[in-house]
Design goal:
The complex is a heterodimer. Chain A contains 22 helices and 42 strands. Chain A is α+β, with helices and mostly antiparallel strands. In chain A, strand 28 and strand 29 form a beta hairpin. Chain B has twelve helices and nine strands. In chain B, the strands form two sheets. Chain B has a seven-stranded mixed beta sheet with strand order 1-4-5-9-8-7-6. In chain B, strands 2-3 form a two-stranded antiparallel sheet. The longest helix of chain B has about 40 residues. The chains are: A alpha+beta, B alpha+beta. Chains A and B meet through helix 9, helix 12, helix 14, helix 15 and strand 30 of A and helix 5, strand 1, strand 2, strand 4 and strand 5 of B.
């Protein structure tokens, strides 16, 4: 909402308040001033003044130029050469003398230039009569700006035409401030200054014949149209509205049309009540077409399939959402949104039927959105305009039509008001207010503030007040709203700051959150960079991760009904899609990319409205396992074992390594033979492996191994023990010995280790695989695994005891998996 | 024999001076003082001496031996020092060469800042409460006092989820506030007659139907706090937020609370902090106002309390919410919000 201070000042005095202070005060009270625009503050008061054209002569050497002599308060008129078509003797103009800064009206860039003395076709020009464009007021450059006849000659234009406009953000709860009067109310309350109201009284001499019998108003559904008022103004002269009115409309961002239309807009800006002016004679004509003498205006719901050509010449398809203003011949306008073209006011209009009504704001809102018409009227009605404002707006506009268009107001007003909203009365308990705000208001203070805001306040007892809400405060429903009014006007900055003194809530375990963070820390420790990705992707991107290339239909996904782009239209089903996107982004400027994400994937559930949100960990590694340095310029490249090592370390640190197993598996993205399922207590929780070379190609990744892992985090976190036993630090040295065993090459190392551990028992503190060997002299199909075993007992182990353990292990290996000792 | 011993002494001392390395010294020792060394050899001839001469020669031989041992020790120390010095000199490196860096990863900046925020509120007794992202309209809007077609819905453009059946009642949450209802109902269920106090924070991802630009994104994180109890006031809210902001941004920060509007709080306020860049003078970052908007807050609306199972006659509460991305951007001078989910290492590796 644009608020010119000169206009605001008519309702409450603000011209003695520094504008920055006013803006700050309004902002803190909830009317956020987004911008302060100073109009004309750059106009040189000495060199740009109100002037009067004394006489106009033909230019001796040019047909299209004239010489205008202008008096501008010095008693020494100057002659200027101008091409303005509208310049004439007696006209009041904005006059600039040499040296003034003005805008170059002929340049696209609209830069400011300094006016120089010039000779035009042999005649000296001592200054310039200015257009609106040259003053930066609008883009108008056809003729020069014509000032009102009573403009005082010689006055600096800055004082006469300069202004300050506040741009105020309108949140849904301050729809009442979508008017100058509404903002004035706030200023009045904040500064304890008297508020003036718009003049609405019709003087005797304005009145003509009574309105009775001239129009009939029918409201079909009072819930949709609680009030409809109409007045009739006859014998108007349609012409441009006066300078001051046009000026204010422009300052508020509206375009002047003619005095009748301008008055409806002006009164809307002033009071907040949108109005509509019909050409009454056209309504009568339509009535006659349907066999009636006078118009009958009917408010009703639209029917499916009806259409209307609106003022902007667009044919609109209507739906039962819309409320219509109709007559016996058809549709006149979409209520509260936009009028129809047929009955609009034109230059020929003589008689005006003026509508000021009230509409159900939700209906208007739906219509506004469905027709995509965000008119000034719709913006206001869709946020709620109290029916009481209809009468005020109607009286105000009719009065101005009498004053500015010479019209006669038919006596009386047709006022159909079937559904006056109930007056809201709230019992306010000051103890409740204190409990909510943390500050005590006395009954006196509370009453003072609320009365300044036009609430009616009566004491019930010492701590309770009966508060009657004024009509324009449709946002006030209960005590909490009143508390906001009190603290808002009192000043939030004056509210004390305290720390919570209330009792603490019951403690809830939130180990999952803590363990999730722990998981992140461990992965960072393992050298991985955390990423966070868009959860939105495409089925095609996920399809590219599959060797078979299958793209699942959108229905398989949690898919958006209204995506903002095709690239982000379904919720991901796997973290791999995000990891691969990140690899693609980074692989061309980084040798080593090692990433992880802890995030959700989204799976639809049959028969359920809401999907599963599954928290997962995803890991991707490619390139050197550590950053290359001069010491080791070519570190090993990440592969299956690099990523498995990360998982081993993670599960060890989470103390669940003994419950985790890996088994050979297949996965649509991963390379066979280098893919494992991750098992927790025997249940699959995810996969680890290397990206299939063809999938790598399909995703434009370079020919280099890419190790990937993805697993569900919740079962892992659930398995993490809250505590575990720590073994005493051994008092006696351990016995360490190596054994190498020969097994079939198909025997998994994990199986060998399982047998060793089982046979070794508690005394076998550690098993470390330090060599894997295949080839001569081993027979074909065999491999050798070399282990370093650590025996740790409470007492020093004798050689015999150690040998016994070793024997146990060797026997078990031979019995269970047919292993033989290599060294033997 | 005495001459023989004296000659041996002279020879040994000379040879000792010539020994330049620990190897040469070891050889010298074996040559002169070893079991089969020259001194032993001379002494083996003692048996031929007269009884009178023996003690004299014996004493002399001992003196020479002691003296040579001492000379040897001195020489050995000198050689050891020289050798050590030579070794250290040879072992020196160009200490400006880069080190061997262990591959340490990093947390995403959003995680880092989220943790900082959580830590501060944890100190005030707020615990993390997780809540789902794909939500029902009912929880995201209606129970938060935003009925269908309410003007406040304009403030949050929503992604709806495609479903085969009926209404568009499933959506991506536009804020973390639906968690308020989930949490309140869970707490209230513990004791419906006298629900326990609530003090939680709700971090998580939220979604808005916007264009992706340097200033807006379709996905961003929020964290909000909720405190409900018998004596929770707006003054407490103000104090809590001041404590938070000064811990995060420094004790000298100034704050401004201005009245605002959120459907789920009443009274409501926006919190501005004096501009980090210009300190309130007005600059590009604060668009000349001197203030940076950092969060919204207010007292929980009675309707919301009631929807959560808390009687607004007996309980009051406050809520506040902020976007960690905005806070991260302010803290590190980041100008493009799209950096956050692009996962470009050239951005991430700077944290």
């Amino acid at each position: 909402m644009r608020v010119p201070l000169s206009w605001l000042n008519e309702f409450v005095q603000v011209d003695d308040i520094p504008v920055e202070e006013l803006a700050e005060r309004l902002t803190l009270a909830g009317l956020e001033v987004e911008e302060i625009e100073h109009i004309g503050d750059w106009w040189d008061p000495e060199r740009i003044r109100v002037g009067e054209v004394l006489h106009v002569e033909k230019h001796p050497n040019a047909d299209r130029l004239v010489l205008a002599t202008v008096e501008y308060g010095t008693g020494e008129p100057l002659t200027v050469v101008t091409g303005a078509p509208n310049v004439r003797p007696g006209m009041k103009v904005a006059f600039a003398t040499v040296g003034a800064i003005v805008i170059n009206g002929y340049s696209e860039a609209r830069e400011k230039i300094k006016l120089k003395r010039a000779k035009l076709r042999g005649i000296r020009s001592e200054g310039m009569v200015l257009s609106e464009r040259e003053l930066g007021l609008s883009d108008e450059h056809e003729g020069i700006l014509e000032l009102p006849d009573d403009a005082p000659v010689g006055m600096p234009l800055r004082d006469y035409l300069g202004d300050t406009v506040l741009e105020i953000a309108i949140l849904p709860n301050i729809a009442r401030c979508m008017s100058i009067w509404g903002v004035a109310r706030e200023v009045s309350a904040l500064y304890k200054r008297p508020l003036r109201s718009p003049t609405t009284d019709w003087p005797r001499e304005a009145l003509g014949d009574p309105i009775e019998g001239k129009v009939e108003i029918v409201i079909e559904d009072p819930d949709k149209c609680p009030r409809f008022t109409a007045s009739l103004i006859t014998n108007v002269e349609v012409k441009p509205s006066p300078f001051w009115m046009q000026r204010r409309l422009i300052l508020c961002g509206m375009r002047p049309i003619n005095n009748i239309v301008d008055i409806t807009n002006y009164v809307m800006l002033e009071t907040g009540e949108p109005l509509h002016a019909f050409d009454y004679d056209k309504l009568v004509e339509r009535a006659r077409r349907t066999g009636r003498e006078t118009p009958r205006i009917i408010m009703r719901q639209a029917r499916e399939g009806e259409t209307l050509v609106t003022l902007d010449d667009v044919e609109r398809r209507l739906t039962p959402n819309d409320i219509l203003v109709t007559d016996t011949a058809g549709i006149l306008s979409i209520a509260g949104i936009m009028g129809g073209a047929e009955t609009e006011v034109s230059a020929e209009t003589r008689n005006v039927l003026l509508e000021a009504a009230s509409w159900n704001f939700l209906s208007i809102r739906r219509s506004m959105v469905s027709h995509n018409i965000f008119s000034e009227a719709a913006k206001r009605f869709s946020r709620g305009v109290h029916p009481s404002l209809a009468e005020i707006g109607n009286r105000r506009a009719a009065l101005l039509m009498h004053q500015l268009a010479g019209g006669t107001i038919a006596e009386g007003m047709v006022d159909n008001y079937p559904a006056p909203p109930p007056t809201v009365v709230i019992e306010m308990d000051l103890d409740f207010i204190a409990r909510l705000l943390g500050i005590e208001f006395s009954a006196e203070e509370a009453r003072d503030i609320l009365q300044r805001l036009e609430f009616t306040v009566e004491p019930l007892d010492e701590r309770r007040l009966r508060v009657t809400v004024p009509d324009h405060r449709m946002d006030i429903e209960g005590q909490a709203d009143l508390a906001e009014e009190l603290v808002r006007i009192y000043g939030l900055d004056r509210l004390p700051s305290t720390l919570l003194a209330d009792e603490l809530p019951p403690l809830r375990p939130y180990r999952e959150h803590l363990l999730t963070e722990r998981t992140r820390d461990l992965l960072v420790g393992a050298g991985l960079q955390e990423i966070i990705s868009y959860a939105l992707t495409t089925p095609e991107a996920e399809g590219r991760l599959r060797l078979d290339g299958e793209v699942l239909p959108d229905e398989a996904y949690v898919a958006l009904l209204n995506p903002s782009s095709r690239e982000r239209r379904v919720m991901r089903r796997t973290l791999l899609v995000s990891l691969v996107e990140a690899l693609q982004r980074n692989i061309h400027h980084h040798d080593r990319v090692a990433l992880f994400e802890v995030g959700f994937v989204y799976h639809r559930r049959d028969g359920e409205r809401l999907p599963d949100e599954v928290l997962r960990v995803g890991i991707a590694m490619t390139g050197p396992v550590e950053p290359p340095t001069w010491l080791n310029p070519t570190p090993a490249l990440a592969d299956y074992f690099a990523i498995k090592g990360v998982l081993d370390e993670l599960f060890t640190h989470l103390h669940i390594a003994d419950r985790i197993a890996f088994e050979p598996a297949e996965h649509s993205t991963l390379q066979p033979g280098r893919t494992a399922a991750i098992l927790l207590d025997g249940e699959r929780i995810g996969y680890v492996g290397e990206m299939h070379p063809l999938v790598r190609e399909a995703n434009d990744l370079p020919a280099q191994r890419v190790a990937l892992a993805e697993f569900d985090l919740h079962p892992v976190l659930a398995a993490v023990p809250d505590s575990y036993r720590i073994r005493a630090v051994p008092r006696v040295p351990a016995v360490i010995e190596d054994i190498a065993v020969i097994v079939d090459e198909t025997t998994p190392a994990a199986e060998v280790e399982r047998v060793i551990r089982a046979a070794g028992g508690d005394v076998l503190a550690n098993v470390y695989l330090f060599d894997v060997y295949q080839g001569a002299p081993l027979p074909e199909g065999k491999k050798s695994l070399a282990y370093r075993l650590t025996y740790q007992a409470d007492e020093t182990l004798t050689d015999e005891a150690a040998a016994a353990i070793r024997q146990r292990i060797v026997h078990a290996l031979a019995d269970e998996i047919g292993a033989t000792l290599r060294s033997a | 024999m005495q001459q023989e011993l004296q000659a041996l002494r002279e020879e040994a001392l000379q040879a000792l001076t010539d020994a330049q390395s620990s190897e040469a010294l070891a050889a010298w020792r074996s040559t002169y003082l070893g079991k089969k060394g020259k001194l032993s050899h001379v002494l083996r001839g003692m048996g031929k001496l007269s009884p009178e001469e023996r003690p004299i020669v014996g004493r002399l031989a001992n003196e020479i031996k002691t003296m040579l041992e001492k000379a040897y020790a001195e020489r050995a120390e000198t050689v050891r020092q020289a050798e050590l010095a030579a070794h250290l000199a040879a072992d020196a490196v160009d200490i400006t060469l880069p080190g061997r860096r262990p591959p340490l990863g990093r947390l995403h900046p959003s995680t880092q800042v989220m943790r900082e925020i959580e830590r501060i509120f944890a100190d005030l007794g707020f615990q993390v409460y997780a809540s789902r992202e794909v939500e029902l309209d009912e929880y995201n809007f209606q129970l938060l006092n935003i009925p269908p077609h309410h003007p406040a819905r304009e403030m949050q453009d929503t992604f709806y989820i495609e479903r085969s059946a009926d209404e568009n009642d499933v959506l991506l949450r536009t804020h973390t506030s639906p968690g308020q209802i989930h949490a309140m109902r869970e707490f209230a269920a513990m004791n419906p007659d006298t629900p326990p106090p609530v003090r939680i924070m709700l971090p998580g991802m939220v979604y808005r139907h916007e264009q992706i630009t340097p200033r807006s994104d379709i996905q961003f994180q929020q964290v909000e706090g909720l405190a409900i109890g018998h004596h929770i006031t707006m003054a407490d809210l103000k104090g809590t937020i001041e404590y938070f902001v000064r811990r995060l941004f420094g004790p000298e920060r100034r704050l401004r609370f201005r009245a605002s509007y959120f459907p789920f709080t009443e009274p409501s306020a926006e919190v501005d902090m004096d501009c980090l860049l210009c300190g309130g003078e007005g600059c590009r970052l604060c668009k000349g106002t001197g203030w940076l908007e950092i969060m919204g807050c207010g007292m929980v609306h009675p309707t919301v309390l009631r929807n959560g199972g808390y009687d607004p006659e007996r309980y009051t509460g406050y809520a506040f919410g902020m976007g960690p991305a905005r806070i991260t951007m302010l803290k590190y001078g980041i100008e493009d919000i799209r950096y956050f989910w692009q996962n470009d290492l050239r951005f991430l590796e700077q944290f």
